[in-house]
Hints:
Elements: H1 4-35, E1 56-80, E2 88-89, E3 102-121, E4 125-136, E5 138-143, E6 160-180, E7 183-201, E8 217-218, E9 221-240, E10 245-267, E11 270-292
Amino acid sequence: MIPPSLFKRGCRAGGRFIVAALAALVAAPAAFAADMPSPAPVYSKAPAPVASDWTGFYLGAGVGIRASQMDGDVSQASINSLSNFVGVSICGTVAGVFCGGETLNDAAFRISPYFGYNYQFATRWLAGIEGDVGFGNGKATLANVYYPNNVMSNGNGLDSFAVKSGWDASLRGRLGFLVTPSFLVYGTGGAAWQHIEATSTCSTATNNSSLCRPGLFAPSVITDSATKVGWTIGAGIETMLGYNWILRGEYRYADFGTISNTDTRNFAPAFITITDTLRLRTQTATFGVAYKF
């Protein structure tokens, strides 16, 4: 028979053993997990950038420079009457006077509202149509001649021939490539219009050398205005910002061919007829901002 005291000591020892065993069982999974290697990280592919939507109408405004090159000349100058002097040229071998042309160049600040429509296709290509109107005030003046050559002068330094370039406009197609979803390079070309005024001023000074002195040669001032159609071609870049705003930089060249003006002045008892020609080309550089609807 086991003594009671011994039995109590055994129970206490057994209880401590059971508690220790249970604690070891609880701690074992954590220790086992700590000894296990960490799992490899899982990587996911970054989402593709959201492409900008370029399709739609847009309206914008630009500022820049328009440089005009005009080569002037006199293609015909003759004295006419009912009897003599018919068809006699003032310039040429018969007259013994050789007339050379003159160049009139100018540069003007230009503002230009523009509008158009873009269609984005094949993900990275864009086609569209655009119109613009430019407002500038360029002027070039030849002093001491009243037509653009080197002999149409009274010799008193008071004559002038001036050409003023006013508004312009264009209607063009566009084709562009999206280098990135928000950055476009493009080419553009189409029809262009340019309004110009040419003013011939013959001095009215009351001295013997002035052809236009009162009562002899009139009118003293003649202004011819014309709107000439031509063609234009260019290229540019655009970047789309947030909230559908588009920034632009663009260069264009335009050729308007030759503009002819024929003036008649009374030269009693006859009259004089003069035809001047202007060969006109322009270059424009524009920075603009537009909103796409």
